[in-house]
Amino acid sequence: MFQLFGNALGQVVVISVLVGAGLPALFAFGVRALALGSGGAAEVDHRPGRPALTVVAYLCFALVLAVIAAGITIIVSSGLGYHVSFDNVIPTFAKK
Amino acid sequence: MTLELLLLILVIGTAIAFDFTNGFHDTGNAMATSIATGALKPKAAVALSAVLNLVGAFLSVEVALTVTNAVIRIQDSSGAPKSEFLANNGHALLMIVFCGLIGGILWNLLTWLLGLPSSSSHALFGGLIGSTLAALGLGGVNWMGDGSKLDGVFGKVILPAFASPVVAALVATIGTWLVYRITAGVATRYAEGGFRWGQIGTASLVSLAHGTNDAQKTMGVITLALIAYGTWTDTTSVPLWVKVVCALAIAAGTYTGGWRIIRTLGKGLVEISSPQGMAAEASSAAVILTSSHLGFALSTTHVATGSILGSGLGRKGADVRWGVALRMVLAWFITLPAAGLVGAACYFVGNGIGGYAGVLIVFAALVGLTGWMMLHSRRTAVHAGNVNADWHPEATPGASVAPVPVPVKA
Questions:
Q1: DSSP A79-95
Q2: Distant-in-sequence, close-in-space partners of B146: CB < 8 Å, separation ≥ 6
Q3: pLDDT tens, position by position, B290-320
Q4: Does B144 touch chain A (CB under 8 A)?
Q5: Which residues span the domain enclosing B64?
Q6: What span, in angstroms and rounded, lies between the C-alpha atoms of B214 and B23?
Q7: N or C: which end of chain B has fewer CB within 10 A?
């Protein structure tokens, strides 16, 4: 029982840390890039904006949205009786 | 009306009532941080959460008919009630489920009155374990499963309850720490504004996941009662009306907003800012989704509380009110046994007196105690208008239990 529990818990911890801490971190990179991109009052140092970073910011936000979409996919598909696998990055579905 | 039909009707009614309490007890898990940071207006937050719970409840076509199997032995593995409970239109099973539900509801209401976020699934399981112990003795409870997988009271309830808040706190601590490191140099107001959006997105994910998980439990319980009584025979689907009613009940409960619990989670535990809020909700969503994906049962409430605590630990200089946290943890420890005691007491009274009188006396006790707690809650009402008022635990002893209504801070 404890070994089973340890195994399951280990997996939950690793994936949760990666996704659960990685997602806000990614979002934070987006916010920072956006701030540097617009410059001025958005930043503590009030430097001039660097518009190229605005593009980086939107890339970060797009990735965040993709992760949230993956989350919704897991919720919906497991509700409909499918198991989603992200082994090949692209989600694949299999009937449970 | 036969006694069993009366029991069936009461089981369905109490199950729907439990589902409603499940909804308002858990609104805070998803929305407390968004309300506390002002990312969403209180009413908008509960409305959004209610809609997502409603959608979530309909999303799942999988039948959670075997929900009681995790803790007690009244069903076989297909979900059908065991044959020894089917005599007299399932009288024995209906009585166990009825008393178990009452244990769950009363504990949910008491913890709500005290503003404590405790687990609704623990309350339901606790109630069912109590009434089963009273009816069948120790052998009726599934303590460990057969050892081949994580099962039973230990594997599915107790062990995850110890682990999940710790995991969630760890994830949120790391997330919060990273967020503040990365956004150093960004003007605070600018960052706050950005993170509000992230917060709403991740909180919505938690609400949706809640709807798919929790409404299923009540649907399973009602369908089990219908099968035991003999009006439903299919163990692979839930009657449509059961699905609709349960989805509406959990959504209505969510919309009612358990403001007392929202307040404790959003204001009591940690003074939260929107970057912390986003880290907390992202942690909750990740832990809940990973666990349910891996078939690891845990309580949304424990995860959400752990995450909010972690968001306080991860930010330099943030205060965590350990006194509030300690009260919550104590409430978690006693949720299962307390709901169990109520479930067992109901069974002894209901079965001891027997017949219509026994059933009606137990039901009257439920109605009476519910009414008493509702009235009691009015003395120190918490609502959308004062949910974010400053937290003054030192000003009046017990204020963390019963927040004094003070003017709303914009």
A1: HTTEEEE-TTSS-EEEE
A2: none
A3: 888 777 778 899 999 999 999 999 998 888 9
A4: yes
A5: 3-378
A6: 8
A7: C
